[in-house]
Amino acid sequence: MGFIIKVLITAVAVYLAAYLLPGVNITDVKTTIIVALVLALLNTFIKPILVILTIPITLITLGLFLLVINALMVKWAASLVSGFTVDGWFSALLVSLIVTVVSYILNAFVGDRD
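Structure tokens predicted for Putative membrane protein (114 residues):
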């Protein structure tokens, strides 16, 4: 159940990013949920490998290279999902920042009540 809630929170964050940023377009709500699923899969399986492979450059840049990896995940999701477009790397970086902040805030409200 927690995975579904996290995907829905990510979908809300992606939709908000598309609403706020002019270079990001999503055709419908179904596409938004698919984008959230693709981002979840990419962040679960591909991102850890990229983080490990780029440890030296991440250390040299004091962790700022992780922003590039996040933007890469957004661009990759845009290339995998039809109906989701991101114009440029700066827009992808802004999408990743908005998704991170909005997801953090929504997870704080909806988080586990154990």
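The chain is about 75% helix and 5% strand.
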